[in-house]
Design goal:
The complex is a heterodimer of chains A (125) and B (111). With 125 residues, chain A is an all-beta fold. Helix content of chain A is 0%, strand content 55%. Chain A has no helices and eleven strands. Chain A has strands spanning 3-7, 11-12, 18-25, 34-42, 46-55, 59-63, 71-76, 81-86, 95-103, 112-115, 119-123. Helix content of chain B is 0%, strand content 43%. Chain B is built from no helices and nine strands. In chain B, the strands form two sheets. In chain B, strands 1, 3, 4, 7, 8 and 9 form a six-stranded mixed beta sheet that branches. In chain B, strand 3 and strand 4 (47-50) form a beta hairpin. The chains are: A mainly beta (125), B mainly beta (111). At the A-B interface, strand 5 and strand 10 of A face strand 7 and strand 8 of B.
Chain lengths: 125, 111
């Protein structure tokens, strides 16, 4: 079955870059029927979709308006994984970060059927 | 994009049925049949329970069902069981520059 394994530091200093990786097993980051998402969850903001990447003959990238200027999501086909970079972090970026797959028969699926285990990231000096 | 509105808590006794509502707008829930529901136990990742308003993924009990009327989607859990005690979140496609919005979450308590 498809599994997502997250990795990355749990503590990031303010103004620095948050970096997480999501390794995929049982599917391909280049799949033509999946999209690879980052979602975070905090007590103050609840669940918040951050962005995604997907491949449909070329790579596509979408991100939430709230983080658009700070976020980068990169697929790595050689390692079958994708990563999240969130620049210039502030304490309000403290959250549990999840990677998740969306799959479907249409151009893109709109539900998240496989999730990573989650990674608590604290922004603090 | 504002979060979808869910009741903070819903409770029921074992064997009963409960319904969790998810209210959005004509720009999200009311405009697309792309509402999904997630179950989350403490310390765990969310689990997909319903997708595209009323479809159940393989492996999800048929005690879970979804529906939509206008700008409000609903999740019904019938024959409530102890393991259903969890948080539940809805999400909807919005078609906007931020394509997905989540609900505020509902704590379901099995009495």
């Amino acid at each position: 079955q498809v599994q997502l394994q997250q990795s990355g530091p749990g503590l990031v200093k303010p103004s620095q870059t948050l970096s997480l990786t999501c390794a995929i097993s049982g599917d391909s980051v280049s799949s033509n029927s999946a999209a690879w998402n980052w979602i975070r969850q905090s007590p103050s903001r609840g669940l918040e979709w951050l962005g995604r990447t997907y491949y449909r003959s070329k790579w596509y990238y979408d991100s939430a308006t709230s983080v658009k200027s700070r976020i980068f999501i990169n697929p790595d086909t050689s390692k079958n994984q994708f990563s999240l970079q969130l620049n210039s972090v502030i304490p309000e970026d403290t959250a549990v970060y999840y990677c998740a797959r969306a799959s479907g028969t249409n151009w893109i699926g709109h539900s998240f059927d496989v999730w990573g285990q989650g990674a608590m990231v604290t922004v603090s000096s | 994009q504002s979060a979808l509105t869910q009741p903070a808590s819903v409770s029921g006794s074992p064997g009963q049925s409960i319904t969790v509502s998810c209210t959005g707008t004509s720009s999200d829930v009311g405009n697309y049949n792309y509402v999904s529901w997630y179950q989350q136990h403490p310390g765990k990742a969310p689990r997909l329970m319903i997708y595209d308003v009323s479809n159940r993924p393989s492996g999800v009990s048929n005690r879970f069902s979804g529906s939509k009327s206008g700008n409000t989607a609903s999740l019904t859990i019938s024959g409530l069981q102890a393991e259903d005690d969890a948080d539940y979140y809805c999400t909807s496609y919005t078609g906007s520059s931020t394509p997905y919005v989540f609900g505020t979450g509902t704590k379901v308590t099995v009495l």
